[in-house]
């Protein structure tokens, strides 16, 4: 048994209670990144008057969290490869929780910007380490479905903050501004998830890759025993001998090795331009509705209704995750975003706006699911967290820049021009992934990522 790789042994397992727990614990963590993204849009509308936000400070409030996420990806991402996936889980949520709570007590735009920036540093690595961890621990044939389920849990953060904003923003519970309660709830929820994650096992694939074979063996054996109990004593399938592991450290620059530099280029283009469709709509739809003449309160309600499409899209993506190639899930979702995004640009009445926005959101969830599964499949275990975090950091940087591009475009040229720009970005994604992305669905990570 010792001659067989940990990855090969994990790939033969059925879905067990441990798998379900780690999917739930990681999914609830992604909830707060998605919660925080829509929170930026809510703050932009609500705090413009309270903090006298100017044309300069408004994009800073909207973009500070994303800029922090970019820094977090660059600074903390490599810890997942050096210290372990689980350690990074704990650090990221702790930083987010503390500084989001501090943000609730902001007395000025400057304090809010700084607290959101530091909270973003912690939150930035949440998605990359979740993608990496699930890729490490889930059997190859369930990797797509398991990651999709975790992301579907996460997408509930969008609709949750949308409806909470609708209820809390007009109110002053206990005499405190409603927007501050949104921060408090986000912080306390993250503490609960942090407590759950204390019980997660470390990635046995990662442990093996850094030479901690005894620990990897103990975790894997426990999961095998759990699987055997589920099978009622029937033997597990024989592990593949082709899924070899390279138990040596690799420098982060290995992502630019001749085998992977093309994948890096494809992923970086995807990360930068998909942001306009996925996060551009998430942060700008409320402002688009206000620009079309709807009140702030009603725009929050319509946004909350449309964002119910995120879990719906997650359910659809889960059903498709192992049935079609990841690249075609990304391409198809992106096409729908571009098409219905343009229809949204020209809609002026409530029903079409909510329907078109809902469809865009459903497709956005499909795009996000495909991206998060794909980005953690195309690099070796020894650099998976670093490469995924650096690439994902570019999407955070792009998201941080979006308000500085889209807000002036919306104000100077209107919703049609802004949504047209988003559609052009979607076309770039379609060409990038459709032509150049590798096929990854159902393939073992070790056979997909050969180390020379």
Keyword list:
452 residues; mainly alpha; Growth Hormone, Chain: A; 19 helices; 75% helix; 0% strand
Can you give a write-up of this model?
Helix content is 75%, strand content 0%. It has 452 residues and is an all-alpha fold. The chain has one domain: MFS general substrate transporter like domains (Growth Hormone, Chain: A). It is globular, with a radius of gyration of 21 Å. The two termini are 25 Å apart. The model has no long low-confidence stretch (mean pLDDT 86).
Beta-strand residue fraction: under 5%
Q: Based on Cα principal axes, name the global outline.
A: globular
Give the helices and strands as they follow along the chain.
Answer: HHHHHHHHHHHHHHHHHHH
Q: Output the radius of gyration.
A: 21 Å
CATH architecture: Up-down Bundle
| Largest β sheet strand count, sense and barrel closure | none
Oligomer: single chain
Query: Helix/strand/pairing class, anyone?
Result: mainly alpha
At the fourth level of CATH, the homologous superfamily is: MFS general substrate transporter like domains
What's the gist of this structure?
Helices cover 75% and strands 0% of the residues. It is mainly alpha-helical and 452 residues long.
Topology:
Blueprint: H1 6-11, H2 17-50, H3 57-76, H4 79-82, H5 85-104, H6 109-123, H7 126-137, H8 143-168, H9 178-197, H10 204-209, H11 213-230, H12 261-291, H13 296-306, H14 309-320, H15 326-346, H16 350-375, H17 384-413, H18 415-436, H19 445-448
């Amino acid at each position: 048994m010792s001659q067989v790789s940990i990855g090969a042994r994990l790939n033969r397992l059925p879905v067990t209670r441990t798998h379900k727990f780690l999917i739930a614990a990681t999914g609830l963590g992604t909830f707060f990144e998605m919660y925080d993204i829509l929170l930026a849009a809510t703050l932009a509308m609500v705090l413009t008057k309270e903090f006298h936000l100017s044309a300069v400070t408004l994009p800073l409030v909207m973009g500070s969290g994303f800029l922090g996420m970019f820094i977090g990806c660059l600074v903390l991402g490599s810890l997942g490869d050096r210290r372990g996936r689980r350690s990074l889980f704990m650090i990221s949520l702790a930083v987010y929780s503390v500084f989001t709570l501090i943000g609730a007590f902001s007395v000025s735009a400057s304090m809010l910007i700084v607290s959101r920036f530091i909270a973003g540093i912690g939150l930035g690595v949440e998605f990359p380490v979740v993608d990496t961890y699930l890729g490490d621990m889930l059997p190859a044939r369930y990797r797509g479905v398991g990651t999709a389920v975790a992301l579907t849990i996460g997408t509930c953060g969008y609709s949750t903050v949308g409806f909470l904003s609708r209820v809390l923003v007009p109110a002053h519970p206990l005499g405190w501004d409603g927007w501050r309660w949104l921060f408090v709830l986000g912080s306390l929820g993250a503490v609960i998830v942090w407590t759950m994650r204390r019980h997660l096992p470390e990635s046995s694939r990662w442990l093996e890759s850094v030479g901690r074979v005894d620990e990897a063996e103990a975790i894997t054996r426990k999961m095998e025993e759990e699987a055997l109990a589920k099978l009622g004593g029937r033997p597990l399938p024989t592990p593949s001998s082709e899924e070899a592991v390279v138990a040596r450290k690799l420098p982060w620059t290995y992502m630019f090795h001749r085998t992977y530099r093309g994948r890096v280029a494809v992923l970086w283009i995807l990360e930068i331009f998909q942001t306009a469709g996925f996060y551009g709509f998430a942060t700008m739809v409320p402002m688009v509705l206000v620009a079309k003449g709807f009140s702030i309160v009603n725009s929050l309600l319509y946004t909350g209704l449309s964002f119910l499409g995120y879990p719906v899209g997650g359910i659809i993506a889960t059903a498709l995750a192992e049935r079609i190639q990841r690249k075609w899930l990304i391409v198809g979702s992106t096409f729908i975003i571009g098409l219905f995004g343009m229809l949204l640009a020209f809609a002026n009445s409530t029903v079409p706006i909510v329907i078109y926005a809902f469809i865009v959101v459903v497709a956005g969830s499909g795009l996000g699911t495909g991206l998060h599964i794909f980005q953690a499949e195309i690099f070796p275990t020894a650099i998976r967290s670093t490469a995924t975090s650096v690439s994902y950091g570019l999407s955070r940087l792009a998201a941080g820049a979006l308000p500085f591009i889209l807000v002036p475009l919306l104000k100077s040229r209107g919703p049609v021009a802004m949504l047209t720009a988003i559609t052009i970005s979607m076309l770039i994604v379609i060409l990038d992934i459709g032509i150049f992305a590798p096929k990854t669905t159902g393939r073992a990570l070790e056979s997909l990522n050969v180390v020379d």
